[in-house]
Specification:
single chain, 63 residues, mainly beta, Rubrerythrin, domain 2, two-stranded antiparallel sheet, 10% helix, binds zinc ion
Length: 63
């Protein structure tokens, strides 16, 4: 069974925690789009979104 993930409002990281493990920011339950970044140095979408790490991210996070 997959736990419902939450997404950071600041850096889009997906997490099961209630605060973001990457930046300590607020997380939201409402998000869309599942993005896996493997090589953020070479990813246009990571650059556009301001992501500077590899991992799982949400494309859109509801404010
Ligand atoms: Zn964050």
């Amino acid at each position: 069974m997959v736990k419902r993930l939450k997404a950071c409002k600041d850096c889009y990281t997906l997490t099961e925690e209630n605060t973001c493990p990457m930046c300590g920011g607020e997380v939201a339950r409402e998000w869309q789009g599942y993005l896996i970044i493997l090589e953020h140095e070479h990813s246009d979408i990571a650059r556009k979104m301001g992501i500077h790490a590899n991992g799982k991210f949400a494309l859109k996070v509801r404010e």
